[in-house]
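User: I'm writing a tutorial on reading structure tokens. Could you give me a worked example: one chain, its sequence, then its tokens, then a sentence or two explaining what the tokens reveal?
Assistant: Sure. Here is the example chain.
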Amino acid sequence: MTIKQPFYPQYGSNQVLTAAAASASAVINPDCKQVRVVNTGANKGYFRTYNSANGVQSATTADFPVPAGLAATVSKNADHNAIAYISAAGTTLEAMTGEGF
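And here are its predicted structure tokens:
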């Protein structure tokens, strides 16, 4: 029997990100198809992925939300090599790239 795993992490790619009221960004691996964001803080955070060759983008509360204590895994465009993140009340996010089904 085969067990399908929805996310294969790229070990060593995890980044701890301190989200605040101003948007910040970090580099992620463009070769991976997905990014998993875990909110280990106490407040909701938001993120978006983008291609930094097109300029820095800012995250807003209109982007992908990650409630406190939860995780989200999203597929990204193949050329996206950055993540922008924000949290109006402040929180800690952990972002890790990988691949899944």
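What the tokens reveal: The mean pLDDT is 95. Residues 15 and 95 are 5 Å apart (CA to CA).
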